[in-house]
# Entry
Amino acid sequence: MSDKKIFLMKDKNIFLIKDKKYIIAGLAFFIALFTFPFWYNSGKAAPGPEIKLTDMAKEAKECVMPTAYMRAEHMQLLDIWRQSVVRNSDNIYVNPSGKAFTMSLSNTCLDCHSNKAEFCDKCHDYASVRPYCFDCHIDKPKEIK
Amino acid sequence: MAGVAVLGIGAKPVLDVLAAGQGEVAGSFKLQKGEGALNAKQWAMVIDTRKVEKASDLEPMISACHKIHNVPQMENKNHEIKWIWEEEYHYAFPTATSRYMNEHAEHIPFLVLCNHCENPPCVRACPTKATFKRESDGIVMMDFHRCIGCRFCMAACPYGARSFNFRDPRPFIKETNKEFPTRMKGVVEKCNYCAERIAVGKLPACVEASNGILTFGDLFDPNSAVRELLKSNFTIRRKQSLGTEPSVYYIV
# Structure
């Protein structure tokens, strides 16, 4: 090794030895601070939302598609519906079991699920998503507006 | 931990669906037209202005349209939203006026709306394809979800048929029709030739309320009601020289 390199290494060692405790303390403090939200909230996960179905929805038993699909993919379904109705003027949706529905968020979905606050909002709030569907599509509250 | 919990309810059903074969579940649906839907290659309208005498003859058509489509009534003229309205001859047909004119034409109000042009300039201007000429029936439609409110279409439209929502329109809608969505602040809107009514076999609301002044039909069907009228009457269109090929014809 050249003289220059040895000098540099020495220099570094001196630095480490001198400030070791500060560096370790600082690191520990940083890690504690960074992971604070995780251990502070551990074991306190909010329970999943309990959504209420309207009598009409209960009576229908199944939605347009199976519940699991609707729960996970209703936004994709609505996307297909919009594309089809607005761009292709096809407004009837025939589901795999052969049942036909008019593709309309306002008039089909919200007709059955007329309890937006207890159905849509519950999950959306829990998942912290803010879809802007209802800026235009009018929910139909059975009670007061 | 909230994020993990969301994954808990969000991802599991997705996985279940995937396990069941997503293609099976999502792929086997069918999209089709309603049974009673009206069909045409290019919808068109003929307005018989000979039957119009005064503004009150047009009023029922305007209010029928604005009511069912949740068009707000803005107090500020600069914020005005209109789908169908009345216009003086000189403004409606600036390229077809002369100094001394037929008194009837000069004094009656003309009903004007989106012309659903065969060659629509607004469609060419739209950067997001929020407005488009629908292949299936020639309606110049708007997908409000896609509109970014740039208003290029308003600049491009030579007929002033488009209005911009400078404010949230909801507080200005007197009677809300819950069957039809409202719009939100920041989007452009215009007449949609009642696409939602045609899809269920009804004529446009203005035509229904017109008491015979308006006729609606397929321009490309030589035997349609509009073509019959065009054959037997002299008609004009707005700013024809621009080459937009409006599909609203006026019998004068």
